[in-house]
Amino acid sequence: MKKFALLLFTLNITFLFAQKEISGFVIDNAGMPLSGVNIIEKGTSNNVSSDINGAYLITVKEGATLVFSYFGFSKQEYETTDSTLNVVFSEGDGQSASDVIITGTRTAPRSSTTTALPIDVLSSSEITSSGQITFDKVLQYKIPSFNTVQTPVNDATSLLDPYEIRNMGPSRTLLLVNGKRKNLSALLYVQTSPGQGETGADLSAIPIDAIERVEILRDGASPQYGSDAIAGVINIILKKTTDNGSATLRTGITSEGDGKMLGVSLNNGSTVGEKGFVNYTLDFSKVNLANRPGKVDAEGDFNDFVKINPTTYRSYVNTDNTLGGTDISGMNDNQINTVFEDYKDTPDYNAKFSIINQGNITGRKAVDDFLKEKPDGGNINGSPETAAIKFEINGNFTLTNETQLYYNAAYAYKKVNSFANYRTPYWRSIKNPFENSSIPNWSISSVYPTYLKDFFGDGTVGFYKGYHPTFTGDLNDYNATLGYVSIRTGWNVDSSITFGGNSQTYTVENSQNRSATKNSDGTNIYRENSSISFKPGGASFKHIVGNLDISKILSDKISVGFGSEVRTETFTITEGDKASWDGEGVDSFSGNRPENSGKWNRYNLGGYFDLAYDFNKDFFVNGTIRYEKYSDFGSATVWKLSSRYKFNKDKITLRGSVSTGFRAPTLHQIFSQKSQNSFVAGQGIQINGLINNISAQARLLGIPKLDAEKSINISVGVGAKPLKNINFTIDYYNIKVKDRIILGDNVATQFGSVAWFENSFNSRTSGVDAVMNYSPIKLGIGEIGFNLSGNVTFENKRISPVASDNFGATLDALTFTSRPKTKWILGANYKIKKYDLSLNNTYFGKTTFKQDGLDSNLRTEFTPKLVTDLGINYAATDKLTVAININNLFNVLPQWKFKAENAAGTTILNDPAQVKSQFNLITFNGRYSQMTYEGYHFSQLGTLFNLSLNYKF
Questions:
Q1: In sequence order, what are the beta bridge partners of 823?
Q2: Could you list the residue ranges forming a coiled coil in this record (predicted)?
């Protein structure tokens, strides 16, 4: 027994001395610590990960070899000859840290060349050098699958332009800031324009100079991130720099001399103690109005606002519903026309006939006189005046070697001043051209009230020129995240809470309430007693999101991630002042009625599990499953499987994914109810309005409550690097959406003409994204590089019947063909000494509309156009850089034309009179001649000149 005990003791001592501790730090070539580096004893499962400071400690056998692996870099192996081993990952070992992709996976991040998903990455320099004023417009001219444009009609929609990825609407793209969900806007698009019935986060609220890079995932990502990520994800990564602060002055103007812009931005950073940092950005900007009205057709306006037809019986009916002494109540048109034929040539008929003809002559002269003075009808439509203040802060603080506190916060205030359509003096008239006191019982000859000359003139009839209602929107957008990260024994634990919100309040001025509502004493409440300034109310949205995300690199083959999310959302519609909604409401933008206002809330819980397995250095598979439960409509279980395979010495990569997804109906879509004209007492339903799906009227109409959209996403791609300086990727996508939510057309019901949201049909969107880069090569004494990227839509259409008869041709075109069918971007960059020259060409393909009122045998097509942007950067000193951008160098403007759907359409197009009539119908008699009343495919402003000065300190 003693010999056996001695043997065990000897073996234990031998084993003890055969093991040793190895410690050190892992850093990049800039000296920054790398946390989460996997360190494994080769040939074993013994592994650890570096902590927040890049430090590690591992016990290994004598003579062991350590393998260091980190996303974006090649593996490194070292023999453990010393007890201290410090490792440096340099760019030459693989990708730089800026190329590391954190979007699209819940396990360890990967480099841009090893991810299984199509992801675009825009650097800070690419963003700031674009010359665009706001972040959403930067993406418009940098990412082919991203589209946005200002709407023709500027009221509440002027606060946030609709945007989308892969032509799928704003609601199906998720916006993240540092990987955390950004709050939605409070705005619900109800204009007849692209994005109708949807909402999205406010991209323009992000200050450009706060962005380090942007990762745009062009693939469904509901299993990783939850609702809204059907089309893709935009992840904004904020700056972390603590030196090289800068101040930037930006100014610009259009070639028409309007749209003047002035902006000042400050970005700076600092260390906090010895183990933290803070980076902050402050941005002020002011953009003046840019106006692009069309020329109004006098005949069209005369027909719409003045003309009385002398050949129809309706023009001769008295206020007591008699025609020539005959009561026509209850008669049909044939019976009335018989009465009308007998009525002709009577003294009453002849008197009225003469008054009508003379009134038409007088009225036409009034139209011609006004339009001679104001050929555009006084309209202002283009880019509204906008002032904005934006603030962003990003930072962290290392608490211990294993724990870290991080935070970011943002606030944006935006004020937009825009205009409704000008109310011409013959549209809102104070003098009736058909006025005649000799026929008192004839409404056509009644005397018009003249109070408008006092509201919008100097009190005289001759000075009154109509009036122009204004719309002012005040927007506040904010978000903040506080998080805690720990790395212990290789486990990365990230817990955070995010607050965010968006509020909008509206003001209408220089308008009136025209309603004939009376006081008890018979006097008018409005009209001559109306205010000319109104507060129609507003809306707000806010959310609170809690996240717990845990991941670990288990070995050089397996990574796991799992976590949970809890989110609460609140949507509020704020009541307007009574004068803004009572009766007809304010002329131009009716306010929120009290019965349509309120506050609504819901919450949801979600959890996911993510597993990534590298079979070898070439073959990789990633799977994710997620379960989400909503308090208001139910639950969803979704999954995703993606893979990547490299071969031919990593020169060719095959990748693909298949996933299911979902999008919960927003609170805006569930609860919004909007007054348009008048209210049916006791019913809460407005004529020509929007009713919500939970109202009693919706039940009576058989409209079901909203459910989640479901999707199936398939993506297959190939990437190649055939030569040292050339690489390209091509990705095919196919997205099927089931139970797609729409805001349908207005339908005549027992409650009036109303629209509603519903799960209407299934749709399919398919196409190809292509990206090619030709990295810089020597050209003379400089370097030149090229990039080409494009998106081609193969299919974007409804593939099932609609639930109700409320999805007409106009809405179908807005949903599926109002964005370019193809879009390509070709860029070149030439660096020579202190100059950096860039030339960017964006090709906008065909878009198709079926405007409201357009003959069903016609369509309109916006023709393909090429927009060229030129940028010149000059490094005047080490600290001062001067940049000149000429966007839309050749002043290319949107153009459209009628197209025939069939032979009947061809007949219309061969008749100039009918063509003119159709033109007037869709452009409001020429007011929106360049873009029509419903939208276009790129900016109508033409050439923009921008100058910026950047000073580093």
A1: 791, 844
A2: none
